[in-house]
Amino acid sequence: MCGICGIVDTRGANRTDLDTVRDMTARIRHRGPDGDGFFATSNIALGMRRLSIIDVLGSDQPLYNEDRTIALVFNGEIYNYRELRADLIERGHRPHTDGDGETLIYLYEEYGLDLFARLRGMYAFALWDAPRRRLVLAVDHIGMKPLYLWERDGILRFASEVKCFMADADFQAQVNAAALDTYLSFGYMIGEDTLFDGVRRLPAGHALIAENGMTRLEEYWQFGRGYKVPLTPYPPLPRKREEGEQPGSPFVSSPSEGVRAESDVIATARDLLTVSVHLHLRSDVPLGLFLSGGVDSAAVLSLMAREAGSDTGERVKTYTIGYDASTPDNELLHARRIAAHFGADHHERVIKAEDWWNGFERYVYHHDEPNANSSAVSLLLLAEMTAQHVKVVLTGLGGDELFGGYANHRIIPQILASTANGQGASKAAAARTLGWLEGYYPAFKRYRGIGALPTYLPPLRHRMLPRDEALMRSQSFDGMVFSDTLRVKLYSPALREAAAQGHKRAMFDAIIGKSLRDDPFNTAQALVINTWLTGNALLNCDKVTMAHSLEARIPFFDPNLLAFAAAAPSDLRMRSNKYILREAMRPLLPSFAIERPKQPFGTPILNWFATDLKLRIQEKLLDQGAFIRQWFDVAALERLLRGHFNNTAPQVEVVFRLLTLEQWGQVFVR
Q1: Strand pairing partners for 98?
Q2: For the chain, which terminus, N or C, has the lower number of CB atoms within 10 Å?
Q3: Does domain 262-404+543-594 have CATH number 3.40.50.620?
Q4: Cis peptide leading into residue 286 (ω within 30°)
Q5: Mapping DSSP to helix (H, G, I), strand (E, B) and coil, where does residue 655 land?
Q6: Is 280 in contact with 78 (CB distance < 8 Å)?
Q7: Tens of pLDDT along 87-99?
Q8: H/E run at residue 8
Q9: Domain 2-219 is in which class?
């Protein structure tokens, strides 16, 4: 696990600067405190910071092939590296290290740009092929490791974090005004653009190739259309088959193979997750687990505990965050109970409003992009504690995305069904009426009896709109947070003009284009993956853990598990919340973990914004010199904020998005 960066002159004019690359790497020392490394030749300069996890003493980077005609800097882990390495040695390669990164070089030599279909891991890498004068930049299939791009005058810069670009004298941090409405609508950025003007992210499942004075983008993976790594070298761990359980296929290759028996699908899910956790435990340094009270991380814990018990008898180290406040669902008690069941070495951190505020300020710096996700602040504080004990942590992230754990997994098929026959005059009229009511939503929230209308009415309106608009509004929870009424009142003329350029619609239309499937449930999963997951959850996981030099691993996003989830029968996936996962883990988990209903990762932010943190937020947002005032109608902004803080029109989610934008502007733009 590392941080990488570099500069390539695509015009071949030798305009790269190794000193700048050194300054870039210094800005991400937190991603790799164990060392650095550099490579430079005409037209290319590469840099990296290393967090030593596998082959601690022997895999310093850059890495090279035998004749040093290929150089690589690499961030991430290739979990099937042992099997790949053995095969590559048989093919005549002679690795210099015992690590995982070197396999990328020899796979490239063997298979070229087809190497990705053989990888099980998370990665962002830069590979320089000197004979071809080719630079290959790539991120993993689902986007667990980010890579940012900034290109100007034929010079391409890339980095694990945007703050690296600030080492370049030519970089000016400016707001991408056309994308500001996209952020405010979603609370994060969708698509490849960022809120930094000129900076974009390399999309998940893509490689960027720079050669012959040109750059091109190649896609190698999509959900439901991606590769499946052969399973032959990686059999499931030995286990006693449950009574009545049928032998499971090692992989459900495609829907065309026919509907499988329910017991077969469930056994396959368990076997695939077992193998994935087994591979994710490969490490030469101590590791642990982020444990919530839900079934996802409990499933990972059960498999980790079985492996630990079979090897050394050591207890799995688990880490949980909680709050010194009343919350709708405090995870502490549930996680504590699950940890005790498996005899884990359990650790907890309880935070107060002051802790959260300090974490929020650090979170905005480390995330680079404004991202209004309050639970990510808690995750940063959890990572801070965890990093005092281990260098690697597994997480339960992904169970919801794979097995249908979100409300939108059911709402989106309903939208697709309701819009299949067109909008019609009556639907259009009803949609306009419900849209007119949006202006009253903040006031509704104060009153008993009608206070829930802002929750129920927007989804109803979405089903009366044209399909693509309905899907976009559903994914952004439009009407529940931001609304057309609020935009008209709040946006300054300049922001309205910028929003009219259609950035949000263009980004979402592209996402719809690569998300539509014949199966509506697969469409729902793909949309969630291509918006929330890649634009929010995975970026948060990477940024907040690497802020504390902690590597986070996500077993649910093994390519074979993702392909299995897309091929499993929809009637099983939609039977109930995460039905396949719960049934697959039933033999291994206690009933209280299996039967616990789906719960959001709650925080007391709603209360803290109105109590402990109220004065700080008011001071920041109502300041006459606030960064956000340039983008909004000042009088409307002040009315919104005062209505929220005096509880006549509470809009905590809107306020949090404004607060995050303000902090980001202060840190990066000013």
Answers
A1: none
A2: C
A3: yes
A4: no
A5: helix
A6: no
A7: 999 999 999 999 9
A8: strand 2-9
A9: alpha beta
